[in-house]
Amino acid sequence: MRGEAPAVSVVVPARNAERTLGRALESLAAQTFGSFEAIVVENGSSDGTLAVASSFAARDSRVRVERCAARGVPEARNFGLDRARGDWLLFLDADDTLDPAALEVLREAARDVDAVVCGWTRVAPDGTRFDSHVWTEADRAFESLAVTCAFAIHCCLVRRQLVVAVDGFDESLTTCEDWDLWLRLARVGVRFRAVDQVLALYHAHPATASLDGRRMLTDGLEVIGRAHTPDSPLDRSRLVPTRLACACFAAGLELGAGRDASGLLDLLGDDRDPTFDPAAVAWCVYAAATLPSCRSPREWDRVWPLVEPQVDRFLAAIEERTAPGVARRARRELETVVLRESGAALTIGSRRSLRVELSRPIEDLEAAGVERVVIRAELEGSLLGRIELPVCDRVVPASVLADALAAEFFWPLLGRYLGLSPQEHDEAGWERFLHELWGEQGGLLAVEGDRVTVACPEPVPDLEVGSRSLRVRATVGGAFVGVVELSGPRGRRVEAGELREAITLQCGLELAITAAREVLLGRPLPVGVPLRDLLRAARAVRPPAVASNGALVLPRWPGPVRGPASRRAALPVAAAQELVAAGPPGLVFDDPPSQVLYEPGVNLTERPRRFARRQRNGHSPSVESSETTARLPILMYHRIASDGPEELRRYRLDAAGFERQLDHLRRAGYRGVTLEEWRVACERRRPLPGRAVMLTFDDGYSDFASSAWPLLKRYGFPATVFLVAGAMGGSSTWDRDLGEAAPLMSWREARRLQSRGVQFGSHSVTHRMLTSLSNADVVREAVRSRKLIADELGSAPSSIAYPYGDSDGAIAHLMGACGYTFGLTADEGHAELERSLLLMPRVEVRGDQRFEDFVAKLEGTSIAA
């Protein structure tokens, strides 16, 4: 023994580490915490590792060298553990380093716990840092570590006696031995704490055992199995999904090395999970595939040529163990993630990423051979954000692209034009815009008939109206915005102020979107030019009508002015017949069109919308409560039933459990609201009064009428049921991989429920994953289901719940062009006032979760899958 025992022992196994060991030891020498010993375990090197270690030991008494026979890394670590003297341990591989403050920060944070974990980052061979991680689940360490190894080994400072008590590292494992150790420590109750500082540097290089996908999966499955033993507190239903996810990560390692990964799945035995999320497949492959070549995720364009030749074979093998459509959806998700995260302009599979500078002319995007474009929108070189659009018939028309960009980025465009800081813009930008928009008051205009156009920014006249109702066509810069209806006695006078108020209220932010699209987008932002002058100039050069040029131009769907019905879109020519059949009467075409365009300003079919100065349609009923709802829980149920396959228990809640939940909602002061009430709140950016909740039911099971609806009526909550229009009166065939299919309600049952107050939406025609389909098939699912429901129930639905919650930005764009105002996903979370109405998250109510879990998810204190 050499003097007083240090506080910390750092064990450094080193074999053939001549090139990297010096860097690792230099990082220890630079530590601001000095009470440590470094035990270099040299185990059978054939290079100059021993000489490097001995040189450091000669210069620094805290470093000592121990030699052992040539054995694996777990054995070398245990060898060092046996010779450690400090109360605390840290294991540092010979090719990794620590931040100078690492030991000091970790030791300070370890005063009242057993193990402390810092954040870590990868370091490329050229020194570039990327892919940083901070562990956020130390309070539930065992559950977290049962799924994945959550941190690099040199992130953790742990009490030595606890590591000794669990017999150190398992020497039967070639990889994952650190994961296994942390998991065993967590299982016996070791108290972990995480610090949110990145202090551990993981230096990437190809010659790493953990980059061998087959070896890593073999050992990883062993560790996962140890966590999920019969006496484990873990949910056994998570075992197979965890094994599948581990296999997908291992596959990413193989694919990133240019190797076939499909054979890895043989290690899973008979594992199958029809509910496995395709997004999980994509994210696991994405996270792993760049590691064999030591590249950052931003260099995926250089990794994709290695992955692409083998990825479809692997995804097909995964689909055999999951559900139909998973391979296509997982590939689409992988392509989207790669394009979004890489930042490069490239084409990957069926997707292409592009940069668009908003201050330059917006042109058609020629995109032959792809189905999606991911647009990186920049303004004067600064990133504003990204949007994803579908590609139909090889092109995204400039008019569609400009409209989508304006709808997403109008607010920062206006802020820059008005010269306001972000805070000033959020506080006063809307009032400033309205002041710039509206012209002076005009004279008196006698209106003949029941229609009139108000052209912003021209002077707004007082109107003398001879009819009971008046349809006001509002334009901005000559571009159509929407139709506003005013009603009252004949011969009345509508003052200019009332007219401006009506247009502002009902058109809302669509006025600003249109203005930004017409005069701010596609050119350098004007300086010192009044908005009214810009709009007048745009109106003067605007063509009088939309030129079809052989295209089929679809008119506006009924719907609110501010919403998806106002967005332009290109739709697939292959779906033209279905679009015409679902459109307004009299819409026909003879020859195959060159394009199909949805143009909201053509042949308006907007339903009348009433306006009164004091009682406005769309206001929520009076609620006596000081509380408001800015984040709306939309509850997602499936079946309310007692019997059914155990494998489908997640999607089935018994009537007693459902009633307990409804009783809680009522006692807690919740009130049920509709999608339209939420739309109005979103339009005005004003929270709903009181504690609001929305109840939705997917699939349209026949027992809804007997099990759910009586309880909903008793407790006074409205509900929306989403119907699979092509399966009415049949059964849930999509559930057959999990158990016996359940009967679905018939159209007759739906009509009876509709007459009693139940609202209905679409759940597609066939209940297929929409992202697994071509754009033409997506549109067919959307318009056919909408038409079937309209034919049978008398009105077309304004909402769609995506089957399996499966959607993306491009799907949402197509849904808006097919007539839907609302789109509901299965993403866990609460709807927010500023989120897209076509991508609203929900709170899944599971039959296999406790009542306390329901309450926590309802309140937003615990959103867990």
Describe the protein.
There is one protein chain. The protein is of the alpha/beta class. It has 25 helices and 38 strands. A hairpin with a 2-residue loop joins strand 19 and strand 20. The radius of gyration is 31 Å and the shape is globular. The two termini are 52 Å apart. About 2% of the residues have low confidence.
What is shown here, in short?
This protein is of the alpha/beta class and 865 residues long.
SSE layout and pairings?
Elements: E1 8-14, H1 21-29, E2 36-42, H2 49-59, E3 63-67, H3 73-83, E4 88-91, E5 97-98, H4 102-109, E6 115-123, E7 129-133, H5 141-145, E8 156-159, H6 160-165, H7 177-187, E9 192-203, H8 213-227, H9 239-256, H10 278-289, H11 300-320, H12 326-342, E10 347-348, E11 351-357, E12 365-366, E13 372-379, E14 382-390, E15 395-396, H13 398-418, H14 422-437, E16 441-447, E17 451-456, E18 460-465, E19 469-476, E20 479-487, E21 492-494, H15 496-507, H16 510-520, H17 531-541, E22 552-554, E23 569-571, H18 576-582, E24 596-598, E25 628-629, E26 631-632, E27 634-637, E28 639-640, E29 652-653, H19 655-667, E30 670-672, H20 675-684, E31 688-689, E32 691-699, H21 704-715, E33 720-723, H22 747-755, E34 759-762, H23 775-793, E35 799-801, H24 809-817, E36 822-828, E37 831-832, E38 840-844, H25 851-859
Parallel strand pairs: 1-2, 1-4, 2-3, 6-9, 11-13, 16-18, 17-19, 22-24, 27-32, 27-38, 28-29, 30-32, 32-33, 33-34, 35-36, 36-38
Antiparallel strand pairs: 4-8, 5-9, 6-7, 6-8, 10-11, 12-15, 13-14, 18-21, 19-20, 23-24, 25-31, 26-37
Helix pairs in contact: 8-9, 9-10, 9-11, 10-12, 11-12, 13-14, 13-16, 18-23, 19-21
